[in-house]
C-alpha cells in the first residue's frame, strides 16, 4: 500500500495531501480523513453550516456539519469511532451530500429541527489504518507497532492512537462489557477511566450542548440495529417504536434480546442510560463480508436504504412528538 512518509500537518495542506493520497485511495479503496476534509469543505462552500467539535488525541480537527435549525427536535449522527469502519464515514459523507442536494424536499422538517453529523470521530485511527505508523509522531511508532503484534499493517485496528477503543470509553457500565480488555490493544481496551480520551470527551460535551432528541451511531458490519441498554417502562416502549420505525426503513436485523448489557461503555449506551434518549447503533454491511472492509463493502443497496434515514427519523420525531 502507498504510504505517506511524513506526519501530515493539520491545516489546508491536509486538503492538498488528501488530493495526492487520493491516488492511493483509488488503489487502496479506502475513505480517509483527508477525503472527509475535502467533502466537508465542499459542503461549506455549498452553504451548509460546518465546524469543528474538537481535536483528536494527535490534534486533528474533528469536523461536523449541521443541516436545518438549531432549535426544535435535533438528531446527532456519528460514524467512524472505530478506525477500521471507515465505510461508515463514507456513508455519512454521502448522506450529507444527498441531503444538501435534497434540502427543498425536507424543508419542513429542517425548519422544525436539525441534524448534526459527526462523520469521523477517530481520525487518528483512520489514518493509522490507512498509512500505518508513518502517520503518528516518532515517539508513538514503536509502541503502536508493538501493540499491533509487531506489524505495520493496521488494517484491522479499531482503537485510537493510544490503543483505547473509544466506543468502550463512555460512562455507561464502563468496564463491564463481555469483550472489554484492560490494557492498550487494537480493540476493546476501555481506557484508564471513562472519558479519559479527548475524542469521547468531545462527543460527550457536543451531545450535551446539542441536547438531541435521538442519536444514530454508524458501525460495520452485520446489518443489525442495537437500541437497548437497560431501558424499562415507557422509555422501553418509546425506544422500541423508534427502533421499529428505523428498521422499517432499513430492513436490517433488529436486535431485541436481553437488556443490552453484553456490551458497555458505548456512545449509544451512554445516551440511553444517562441522557435517557432513544439511541441506535446501526451496523452497516451484509454479514457475509469480513474485515478489513473496503469502501465497496458499503454496497449501493446499503446506501440507498440509509440515504435519507437521519432526516426521516427527524420527520418521525417531529410528527409523532415522541
Ligand atoms: Zn464499530
Summarize the structure.
With 322 residues, this protein is α/β, with parallel strands linked by helices. It has helices spanning 12-28, 33-45, 86-101, 107-112, 123-131, 138-147, 198-210, 233-250, 267-275, 300-306, 309-320, and strands at 49-55, 61-68, 73-78, 113-118, 214-220, 224-226, 253-255, 279-284. A hairpin with a 5-residue loop joins strand 1 and strand 2.
What does this entry look like structurally?
- The chain is α/β, with parallel strands linked by helices and 322 residues long.
- The chain has a single domain, classed as 3-Layer(aba) Sandwich (Aminopeptidase).
- The chain contains 11 helices and 8 strands.
- Strands 1-2-4-3-5-8-6-7 form an 8-stranded mixed beta sheet, sandwiched between helices.
- A hairpin with a 5-residue loop joins strand 1 and strand 2 (61-68).
- The protein is globular and about 55 Å long.
- The chain binds zinc ion.
- Zinc ion binds next to loops.
What's the structural blueprint in terms of helices and strands?
Elements: H1 12-28, H2 33-45, E1 49-55, E2 61-68, E3 73-78, H3 86-101, H4 107-112, E4 113-118, H5 123-131, H6 138-147, H7 198-210, E5 214-220, E6 224-226, H8 233-250, E7 253-255, H9 267-275, E8 279-284, H10 300-306, H11 309-320
Parallel strand pairs: 3-4, 3-5, 5-8, 6-7
Antiparallel strand pairs: 1-2, 2-4, 6-8
Protein structure class: alpha/beta
User: Mean pLDDT across all residues, rounded?
Assistant: 91
Number of helices: 11
In CATH terms, the superfamily is Zn peptidases
Order of adjacent strands in the largest pleated sheet: 1-2-4-3-5-8-6-7
pLDDT < 50 runs, ≥5 residues: 1-27
Q: How much helix is in the residues? A: 40-55%
> What's the Cα radius of gyration?
18 Å
Associated small molecules:
zinc ion
Portion of residues in beta strands equals 5-15%
Amino acid at each position: 500500500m502507498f504510504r505517506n512518509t511524513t506526519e501530515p500537518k493539520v491545516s489546508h495542506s491536509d486538503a492538498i495531501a488528501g488530493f495526492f493520497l487520493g491516488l492511493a485511495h483509488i488503489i487502496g479503496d479506502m475513505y480517509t480523513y483527508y477525503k472527509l476534509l475535502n467533502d466537508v469543505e465542499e459542503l461549506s462552500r455549498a452553504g451548509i453550516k460546518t465546524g469543528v467539535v474538537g481535536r483528536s488525541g494527535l490534534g486533528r480537527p474533528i469536523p461536523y456539519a449541521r443541516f436545518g435549525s438549531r432549535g426544535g427536535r435535533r438528531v446527532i449522527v456519528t460514524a467512524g469511532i472505530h478506525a477500521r469502519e471507515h465505510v461508515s464515514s463514507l456513508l455519512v459523507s454521502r448522506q450529507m451530500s444527498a441531503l444538501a442536494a435534497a434540502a427543498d424536499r425536507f424543508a419542513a422538517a429542517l425548519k422544525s429541527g436539525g441534524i448534526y453529523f459527526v462523520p469521523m470521530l477517530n481520525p487518528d485511527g483512520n489514518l493509522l489504518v490507512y498509512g500505518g505508523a508513518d502517520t503518528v509522531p516518532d515517539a508513538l511508532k514503536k509502541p503502536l507497532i508493538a501493540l499491533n503484534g509487531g506489524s505495520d499493517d493496521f488494517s484491522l485496528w479499531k482503537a485510537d492512537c493510544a490503543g483505547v477503543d473509544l466506543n468502550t470509553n463512555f460512562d455507561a457500565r464502563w468496564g463491564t462489557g463481555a469483550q472489554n480488555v484492560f490494557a492498550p490493544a487494537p480493540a476493546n481496551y476501555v481506557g484508564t477511566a471513562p472519558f479519559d480520551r479527548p475524542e469521547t470527551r468531545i462527543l460527550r460535551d457536543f451531545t450535551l450542548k446539542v441536547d438531541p432528541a435521538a442519536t444514530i451511531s454508524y458501525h460495520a458490519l452485520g446489518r443489525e440495529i442495537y437500541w437497548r441498554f437497560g431501558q424499562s417502562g415507557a422509555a422501553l416502549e418509546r425506544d422500541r417504536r423508534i427502533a421499529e420505525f428505523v428498521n422499517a426503513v432499513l430492513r436490517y436485523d433488529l436486535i431485541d434480546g436481553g437488556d443490552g448489557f453484553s456490551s458497555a461503555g458505548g456512545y449509544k449506551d451512554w445516551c440511553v442510560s444517562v441522557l435517557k434518549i432513544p439511541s441506535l447503533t446501526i451496523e452497516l454491511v451484509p454479514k457475509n463480508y469480513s474485515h478489513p472492509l473496503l469502501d465497496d463493502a458499503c454496497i449501493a443497496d446499503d446506501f440507498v436504504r440509509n440515504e435519507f434515514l437521519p432526516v426521516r427519523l427527524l420527520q418521525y420525531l417531529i410528527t409523532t412528538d415522541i
